[in-house]
Amino acid sequence: MRSSDLRPAEKSFCHTPPGVPPTTTTSVTSLLGLVLLFMCMAPLANAQTFRNEWINYSKTYYRFAVTPAATVSGAASNHANKGDYNMLYRIPYATLQSQGLTAVPVEQLQLLRNGVEVPIYTFPASGIMGTDGYIEFWGRANDGSADRDLYRSAINQVNDRWSMFSDTAYYYLSTNVGSNLRITDGVHNPLASSLVPDSFFMHTIRISPRNTRNLGFAINIQGKEVRSASFEAGEGWAENRFGNSPFIYGLGKLFAFKNTSSTISASYWAQGMSNVNKTVEFRLNDSIIGTRTFRRYNTDSVFYSNIPLSRINSNDSTFITVRLPVLDGGYRSMVSKVQFTYPRKFEFDKRTTAFEFVLPASATGKLLKFVNFDTSAAPKILIDETNRKRYQAVRVADTLWVELPASATASNLILTTVDLTPAKNIVREIAQLTPRNFTNYALAENQGDYLIISNQRLHNNNGNDPVDAYRAYRSSVAGGSYQAKVYDIEDITEQFGYNVFKHPIAIRNFLRYSRYQFGIQPKAVLLMGRGSTYDYSLTDTNISRLNLVPTWGQPASDNLLAAADNETITPVTPIGRVAAITGAEVQDYLDKVIAFEAVQASDTASHLWQKETLHLIGGNDPYIVDPIKGYMQKYQARITDTLVGANVQNFLRLNDPNTSANNAAIQQAVQRGTGIISYFGHSSATSFDFNLNDPASLNYTPGRLPVFLANGCKASEFFDLNTRRYNQAQLTLSERFVLTKNKGSCRIYFQYTLWHFAIPRCIYREMV
């Protein structure tokens, strides 16, 4: 369901919900529980985090992007890509000079990612950088850590290796007088060491599938999978498997060390995607390691330990299989993560140029002997991220030597080649930095009580700015005398969402920030721009044009953007959306709103048309239509009582012998002026059971536009990347009624997915 605008007529017969200012109304979006009761929240004294805490608004930041080292697809793993899709980065002198940063002592340079400082290696280690100087760091592409706050519980995020929204991480370089994190040169002399090199270490291979989005836990109702818009258990990247197509992953050469008493441990995380319970086998090669019963749509994790090394094939390879004991093509499941831990030698295949691994804490030093790691002549370094040291590996023939001191904690280590040849893609150099000075929303001049979140694509219509015109109207007496402000979605994403492309947490954090930190309490939020659910290809070229302002979840819910937390579905601040993709559509909507509210501001004697109500009952099955009639009779009794005194006309689609006459009567009622049209019955994204699919074909008295309640399947299913939306080649029902010039409606409540009988009941209850 969608509400297009947030301000009803002050003289409308509809009451606003308790706790909501009389000049605002609400948007209803969530699938499983939709209410119109809002609570005004005063700023709380307790500390809140909004993801903008890292920003010093007096500074300039220099932004650049870090992307995966290789294409991520299929059952991606840190075994197929030894550097786990990350790589060494450098910012050379020339790039720093272009922004005037070479005049700054290198000790004052600071690097941040996702609000956290990143340790860097600088050459030189102190003073002013020369022309051969650089900044060096291990660059990590975006992962799922920024998605964790979307879930009700962190344990519901199974595959946290990959972000659901973008693989690109943004880093910010700045200056900071003080102590900054540094990686420094480690002093060692491995060829003179008295230590004996270890023969092996325990290594974990992580398989994190990237085949499909798992939409998470569901309830099966009469063969339909029903999900909430909240991020549920298991939701995220996974591999979709049917019961006759097992999950099989070949690990290839493992370099396993078998002359030890150490054993293998293995685990996997999966979720049933069928309305039955099934027992699943976990196999290494042809050996069944164990079984587990998965219950319907529930997630589960399975751990096996003390697996003998003999399970590894004689050719040093292993196949991991997750399958049904008896294949069943009707069963579906999702595999989200697999881990395999075993004793590994310090050996390689002569071509590996990056390898990330972990060594346990050690009270004594360690002598590391790496055999056949990238046998090219390029230098090799070992980075100890934990202890922030950088060691130049010493080569003797096909062997690299590094000596490490004792470490009180486990150490995350990266062995990498240093070769700046672009074609080899071993080290990436940053060629451009983008200066960023952020808007400080703690300042009163940047705060308002009517918040319009929009996209720059909508700010031009034949040289005029319709979004700012909307702001100006809402700030006028006729528009409600709000302190209306426009906020750019890109700036909000960068400040409140770590600049993860189209991440919905940014809008929620910004709205939370506005409630807790603004000197004036927000009364309404308007999302100006079309949105999309997140389950699209990350490389889809239509994202920027059709997902202008993101929504929350799949199915979509704008309400959850304004919710207080992941445990509630009720928006704290009323929120609505205009699903425009051009400035012209924004202007058409604004013109319609101005005309609509001008009529409502006129003499109250002319407002009787708002008491006119149409109840339209669709459907061709009496088993469905009969209960709908019962509901609609209850709604009629409520709205025709003395508090409202509405005049209701009922129209039934089933076995209607007067279809033509009734369609004409409906159209005449719309032309005279109707306060509410309430539809309950079958629908699709583009059609009702009544001839109301195209508001452009209907005649309206200027400004007399109805509130439209559509309780039918998919009537508002516009949260996609359908290219037919361009040039309005295909509009959903809700888009047609909102965006049609001078016709349709200014305020709609449409269903996004499946029916929910409580929707109209809640709306009617709050009217009286």
Oligomer: single chain
Helix amount: 10-25%
What CATH calls the topology of the largest domain is Rossmann fold
Major sheet characteristics: 7 strands, antiparallel
Shape: globular
> What fraction strand?
25-35%
* Highest CATH level, the class of the largest domain: Alpha Beta
User: Termini separation (Å)?
Assistant: 21 Å
**How many strand segments?**
39
Number of domains: 4
Region (Disordered): 1-21
GO molecular function, one term: cysteine-type peptidase activity
Biased composition (Basic and acidic residues): 1-13
Domain Gingipain: 450-745
Question: What layout of secondary structure does this protein have?
Answer:
Elements: E1 61-66, E2 75-77, E3 87-92, H1 93-97, E4 109-113, E5 116-117, E6 121-123, E7 134-139, E8 169-175, E9 184-185, E10 201-209, E11 212-214, E12 219-221, E13 224-226, E14 236-243, E15 247-250, E16 264-272, E17 277-284, E18 287-295, E19 299-307, E20 319-323, E21 328-344, E22 354-359, E23 366-371, E24 380-384, E25 389-392, E26 394-396, E27 399-404, E28 411-417, E29 427-429, E30 434-436, E31 450-454, H2 466-475, E32 484-488, H3 489-496, H4 505-517, E33 524-528, H5 543-546, E34 575-578, H6 583-600, E35 612-617, H7 622-639, E36 647-652, H8 659-672, E37 676-680, E38 707-711, H9 733-739, E39 747-750, H10 758-767
Parallel strand pairs: 3-29, 9-25, 31-32, 31-33, 33-34, 35-36, 35-37, 37-38, 38-39
Antiparallel strand pairs: 1-8, 1-30, 2-10, 3-7, 4-5, 4-8, 6-7, 10-21, 11-14, 12-13, 14-21, 15-20, 16-19, 16-21, 17-18, 17-20, 22-28, 23-27, 24-25, 24-28, 26-27
Helix pairs in contact: 2-6, 3-4, 7-10
